[in-house]
Write a structure and sequence with these properties.
mainly alpha; two-stranded antiparallel ribbon; 21 helices; globular
């Protein structure tokens, strides 16, 4: 793989233990029992669980909605036609988030406080902020302040989306403060951190980068205020190279593989192919990342499938390419390329077109180098040579289109599209929503069944997938 591989995933046996061997994730368990679990194991388990959740079902279904991929069979075809049920949405909520990584992080924060494991606690707070921000961006109002209490409260109330975003920013700030504290010598952060291997400086850079992302989500409710908040966060010290990107790079063995490889080699692996809109977009700009993101069909051509249409015969269409289909593909929490796109957008909203152009060019070049190993000179000249004048004259659409290209399969694309309407996507045909592309995820079936009163209160009687989250104002 050509991406900067500065993280080594744990050995296969350890990964298997993390994924299936721990009995510490159930929200119905007594949280006091977690004292028997080592702090280090909780951190590793949470990191991998979040990567498999946001890089698994969430990445798959968002990529189908955003037409990076086409759902061509079974569940993914249903999602592509906007038959996005609460049953489909529930698996990742139940398995990877509330009964998985987020519960582990809550236990870790409590346990690390008792043990003066301040660096572990700081990392856990940063990861919890990431998880809450991403989860709220999909479901809007979600449980947090009453969640993770085990059998003492199995029906937690929901916090509003606005409250969650405030909590996210506070957790990020508190996490950075914890990184600067002196921990007990028994708890020096190290290899159990499979994202940064204990590099505290990188964790602080990532926290400020995530702060900028979640401020940027508010671009429709406060365009200038959110832009200033973005730049304040980034100017405090953010990710500034591909080597500092917050990611897990998975291993070379099948037992250590990234979520997309595991999905593609499963019984459901035929459910998706490359999306026609995305493939045609990359072909139109002669993008050098296309051979990494997609494979050719039986005729040696790059051909995507149209949204909402069964993919038959399969040999006529392109499958996922080696960058994510290989076992050692990454899961990106946030990358240097995304940080520069966020910076460019903030500058643009403030009328600082020269700074916006510079950041946009940096973002595209960073993605090229990350994916292909080099920045193709001809492509840079054609696509990454913006200046203040060109940025002011229609540059925002190019900016967001290039971000859509660079963040291939990343869940953040769904938030960007809802904020900006870029790229302009044609709804799948046929679909069940009167040609309206979904704008949120449905609450999980298990929540609807077991926590009905709070779900009803959170959704004001029932949330449709075409409803908007709080920051997605018309």
């Amino acid at each position: 793989m050509k991406f900067q591989k500065h993280i080594v995933i744990l050995a296969a046996a350890a990964v298997l233990f993390m994924l299936v061997g721990c009995d510490i994730s159930s929200t119905n368990d007594d949280p006091n029992r977690a004292t028997t679990a080592r702090t280090q194991n909780l951190l590793t388990h949470a990191q991998v669980n979040l990567a498999y959740g946001f890089g698994g079902d969430i990445s798959q279904y968002n990529s189908v909605l955003m037409q990076h991929m086409a759902g061509t069979e079974r569940i993914h075809l249903d999602v592509s036609r906007y038959n996005f049920s609460s049953g489909i949405a529930g698996s990742v909520w139940d398995r990877n988030l509330y009964s998985g990584g987020m519960n582990d992080l809550s236990l870790l924060i409590s346990q690390a406080t008792e043990e003066s494991a301040y660096h572990h606690r700081g990392v856990a707070k940063i990861l919890m902020a990431y998880a809450l921000g991403q989860t709220s961006s999909l479901w809007n109002n979600i449980p947090y302040t009453e969640a993770f209490q085990g059998s003492s409260n199995t029906r937690p109330a929901y916090d509003s989306g606005e409250q969650i975003y405030e909590i996210v920013q506070q957790l990020l700030q508190d996490g950075i403060e914890d990184l600067g504290r002196t921990p007990s010598q028994r708890f020096i952060l190290g290899n159990e951190d499979v994202i940064y291997r204990g590099n505290l400086q990188n964790w602080a850079l990532a926290a400020r980068s995530l702060s900028a992302r979640y401020h940027n989500h508010l671009s429709k409710v406060d365009p200038q205020g959110s832009a200033n908040a973005v730049l304040t966060a980034l100017n405090g010290g953010a990710i500034s190279s591909n080597d500092e990107s917050m990611r897990i790079a998975f291993g070379g063995e099948s037992s250590e593989a990234n979520p997309w490889h595991n999905y593609q080699t499963s019984a459901f692996g035929t459910n998706t192919m490359m999306g026609e809109f995305y493939v045609d977009l990359l072909l139109s700009i002669d993008d050098p990342r296309l051979p990494f993101f997609a494979s050719t069909n039986s005729a040696g051509e790059y051909v995507g499938q149209s949204a909402g249409t069964p993919g038959t015969p399969r040999e006529n269409f392109s499958e996922l390419g080696s960058y994510y289909a290989s076992t050692d593909g990454p899961f990106n929490f946030i990358t240097y390329s995304e940080v520069e796109f966020i910076r460019a957008e903030a500058h643009y909203r403030l009328g600082q077109y020269g700074d916006a152009a510079e950041a946009m060019n940096n973002a595209i070049i960073a993605s090229l180098e990350d994916v292909t190993g080099e920045a193709d000179a001809a492509y840079v000249a054609a696509q990454a040579s913006e200046d203040a004048a060109s940025m002011q004259a229609g540059g925002f659409e190019r900016l967001m289109t290039h971000k859509y290209v660079a963040l291939f399969l990343e869940p953040e694309v769904f938030s960007d599209w809802r904020r900006t309407g870029i790229p302009e996507l044609t709804p799948a045909n046929p679909n069940l929503t009167n040609d309206v592309i979904p704008r949120r995820w449905p609450y999980p079936a298990n929540e609807v069944a077991t926590n009905a009163a709070n779900v009803q209160a959170a959704s004001e009687g029932g949330a449709s997938i075409t409803d908007r989250v709080w920051w997605d104002v018309p």
